[in-house]
Every structure is written in C-alpha cells, then in structure tokens.
Amino acid sequence: MTSSRSTVDELLERELRRESFWVETDESVAPTRLNAVWRRKVVHWYFTLVAALQRQHSSTVQSPGGDPSVNPFSRYSVHVTASLLDNYLMSLPSERAIRFNHDRPAYQLLATTCLLLGMRLAQHDQIKEARQREASTKQQERGLNESPGGL
To answer: Is the dihedral of CA 115, 121, 127, 132 positive or negative?
Structure first.
C-alpha cells in the first residue's frame, strides 16, 4: 500500500508540473479557467482510483481485444483523462469556464465524465496499438517463412 501511495504521489507531482506549464504559458487565460486546487484533487483522485481498480482487476479481467497488455486502468488513461478535462475547460467561453470554478458539483460531474471518456479512449488506443503490433508480427513471420533461406 505504501509503494502504491508513493507511486500516486509521484504521478501527481508530474501532473502538477504539467499544470504549472499551463499557468506559465498563458497567465491571462489559464488561472481563470483552471481551478488549481480542484484540479490537483481530481488528478490525485484519478490516480488513486486507477491504481485501486488496477489492483482489483489485474488478474480477473480479460481485455476486450484478448490482449493482456491492454488495461483500461492504466496511468495512460489518467493522462488522457486529465488532458480531456484541461482541454475542455480551456476551449469553453470564459463565462462558462468560470462556472466550473464556482460550481463544485458541476466540476465533479465534468471530472467524472472525463474519467469515463478518458479510460474508454485510452483503452481504444491500447487495443488499436496491440492489433497493429500483432499484424506487424504476423507480417514479419510471413516474411520469414516466404524468404528463400527460410525452412
């Protein structure tokens, strides 16, 4: 449990560095659209939730693509999710973005929606990459079997 907590804290630090990048790049826009305190709590919640789900389902869940390397409860899904949350808030008109800074239930709903979408998108990307690797491996095997020196 301690190593899991330290991993979550390490990943949270990376996200915080990313958050500081947003603030430093455009100080006139980012602070009014991104609530740093809520974002920090939500990203920590994302990592904690994904770590718990990964532990719970690591041996029992078979991935839809049949590839064990495809895991919807991965760090990659957290990064996709945080990106969705940030990009959505940055793309809103300022009046609507400010609403999410003052309305905690709306922010929580948005964060949960982004989590579900992010996990699904990350899983889709992982399945696509696994299928591409499988096709590439099959193509290489066929190339070896068809080569003049092959047996």
So the answer is: negative
